[in-house]
């Protein structure tokens, strides 16, 4: 590993929350976490050398997930948040087996949030090919409410559009309509943004579905679950000091910094490159 191991605090509550994603999108989860937990220390890792995970096989994603959590465990984290929908869909068990700390993915919190707000029990789900093909949101929603009908739709072009910063670009609106308009014909009243990149394109998505459809950000829902679990395990950071936010990537820190500030909503500071063991 490129960085020396950090020594853990004698008080486990002061240890950081670890968050990882295939790249930049997970910063929307970090943004939600810092809004709900402004004093928590956070270590973020984005596997920018191997992004995207969405088109890759489940076997490869599981291998990558095992590598990713090693980076976070190196920093003595008290919890791991899997901010990648693809990993949450096909490799959450890998993370849970290896982590030795509480693990939270984005699928179940997103599904539970959608089930709470839907009135018609007709829920659309958009995500990467891997997330959609795994049926993970459909299965999670059925666990919450057997009566819910789900309408999944892969939207692979949303990731590069978000990373290019084409938030209000005519091409983005065209692509959004192509992907999502068929879902509106299914009379959905709720749409799960099943990829952490998608909240960046929220306006374009909302323009297609209209004001009658509730958009559910799985990342924001996950932040709420993090608060609950930390409180339940007495791991909430009692400090009122400025938190230490650290960002690591597997490649191209400069590009991550440039694009990442759009996702996080403020400057990242130093972004460091690490190598896998």
Description:
The chain has 277 residues and is α/β, with parallel strands linked by helices. It has 2 domains: 12-105 and 221-273, Rossmann fold, CATH 3.40.50; 107-218, Rossmann fold. 44% of the residues lie in helices and 16% in strands. It is built from 12 helices and 10 strands. It has helices at 27-36, 58-73, 85-90, 92-99, 107-117, 129-133, 136-144, 158-164, 170-184, 202-209, 218-232, 253-264, and strands spanning 17-21, 42-46, 79-82, 103-104, 122-127, 149-154, 190-193, 214-217, 245-249, 271-273. The strands form 2 sheets. It has a 6-stranded parallel β-sheet, with helices on both faces. Helix 1 (27-36) links the parallel strand 1 and strand 2. Helix 5 packs across helix 11 (218-232) and helix 9 crosses helix 10 (202-209). The protein is globular. The termini are close together. Mean pLDDT is 93; it is low at 1-7.
State the CATH architecture of the largest domain.
3-Layer(aba) Sandwich
The termini sit apart by 5 Å
Spatial order of the strands forming the largest sheet: 4-3-1-2-9-10
Q: Give the low-pLDDT segments.
A: 1-7
What percentage of residues falls in helices of 4 or more residues? 40-55%
- Averaging pLDDT over every residue, what do you get? 93
What is the CATH first-level class name of the largest domain? Alpha Beta
CATH topology of the largest domain: Rossmann fold
Notable traits:
277 residues, alpha/beta, Rossmann fold, 2 domains, 6-stranded parallel β-sheet, 4-stranded parallel β-sheet, 12 helices, globular, disordered N terminus
């Amino acid at each position: 590993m490129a960085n020396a191991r950090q020594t853990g605090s004698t008080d486990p509550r002061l240890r950081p929350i670890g968050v990882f994603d295939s790249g930049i999108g997970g910063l929307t989860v970090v943004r939600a976490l810092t809004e709900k937990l402004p004093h928590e220390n956070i270590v973020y890792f984005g596997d920018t050398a191997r992004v995207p995970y969405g088109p890759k096989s489940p076997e490869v994603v599981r291998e990558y997930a095992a590598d990713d959590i090693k980076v976070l465990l190196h920093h003595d984290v008290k919890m791991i948040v899997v901010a990648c929908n693809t990993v949450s869909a096909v490799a959450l068990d890998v993370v849970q087996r290896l982590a030795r700390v509480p693990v939270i993915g984005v699928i179940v919190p997103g599904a539970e949030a959608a089930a709470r707000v839907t009135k018609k029990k007709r829920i659309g789900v958009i995500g990467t090919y891997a997330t959609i093909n795994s049926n993970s949101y459909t299965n999670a929603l059925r666990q919450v409410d057997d009566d819910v009908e789900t309408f999944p739709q892969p939207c692979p072009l949303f990731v590069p559009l978000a990373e290019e910063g084409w938030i209000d670009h005519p091409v983005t609106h065209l692509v959004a309509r192509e992907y999502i308009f068929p879902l509106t014909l299914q009379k959905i009243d709720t749409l799960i943004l099943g990829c952490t990149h998608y909240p960046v394109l929220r306006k374009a998505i909302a323009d297609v579905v209209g004001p009658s459809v509730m958009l559910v950000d799985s990342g924001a829902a996950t932040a709420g679950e993090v608060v609950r679990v930390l409180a339940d395990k007495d791991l909430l950071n009692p400090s009122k000091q400025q938190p230490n936010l650290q960002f690591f990537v597997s490649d191209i820190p400069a590009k991550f910094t440039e694009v990442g500030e759009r996702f996080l909503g403020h400057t990242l500071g130093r972004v460091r490159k690490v190598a896998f063991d």
